[in-house]
Write a structure and sequence with these properties.
Blueprint (H helix, E strand, L loop, with lengths): L2 H6 L5 H21 L1 H17 L10 H22 L8 H9 L9 H16 L3 H12 L4 H8 L3 H34 L1
Helix pairs in contact: 2-3, 2-4, 3-4, 5-6, 6-9, 7-9, 8-9
Keywords: DNA-binding, Sigma factor, Transcription, Transcription regulation
Family: Belongs to the sigma-70 factor family. ECF subfamily.
Protein name: RNA polymerase sigma factor
């Protein structure tokens, strides 16, 4: 009997093995999304929820992505609670910094240009397909290596690499389009 089947049938010894296999990747995701101070609580909530809803796992091969989705949902709940409690957390800011460095060589930008670039990057990132956004976030923000992302999402390594490459290209194209639009808008105002 497989480890997942044992766990789903209630074998108490199987879950610690699953935790040891997926725990590090999940911890990185959770830590990045909610910060180190809440990571242990969210990890505990994630494991409790996974254990309680283990019967809903349909495909044993998709255990990693299933656990990752539970972790992301628990992070969202924690962030909502933080917001309600007046604690502001904004996950994903580092991604905008990383994307700003990708094919953008502007070391002497003034503050207004930096803010404009950040806004354009956020808009470009938000327009990416979810598949590309997810792998870019996992790779660049949560600093997971490509093989770990592949395992977590249940995808071949080549697919993850392609999604990262394509996501960066799409983001760059969006940035060029925004810059072109801004240039046309400035020209129209001067006429």
């Amino acid at each position: 009997m497989s480890l997942v089947r044992r766990w789903k049938s209630g074998d108490a010894d199987a879950f610690p093995m699953i935790q040891s296999e997926f725990g590090e990747g999940l911890r990185k995701i959770v830590s990045r999304l909610v910060g180190k101070e809440y990571t242990d609580d969210v990890m505990q909530d994630t494991y409790q929820r996974a254990y309680h809803y283990r019967h809903t796992l349909r495909d044993e091969q998709k255990l990693g992505p299933w656990l990752a989705q539970i972790a992301r949902n628990q992070c969202k709940e924690r962030l909502k609670q933080n917001y309600a409690d007046g604690l502001v957390a904004r996950p994903g800011d580092d991604l905008m910094d990383i994307l700003a460095e990708y094919n953008v060589d502007r070391p002497f930008m003034n503050l207004i240009d930096q803010v404009t670039l950040r806004i354009d990057l956020e808009r470009a990132f938000s327009h990416l397909p979810k598949l590309n956004r997810e792998v870019l976030d996992l790779h660049y923000v949560q600093e997971l290596p490509v093989p770990d992302i592949a395992k977590l999402l249940g995808l071949p390594v080549s697919t993850v690499k392609w999604r990262i490459h394509r996501g960066l290209e799409l983001c760059r194209l969006q940035m060029l389009e925004y810059q072109f639009e801004q240039g046309r808008t400035k020209e129209d105002k001067t006429k």
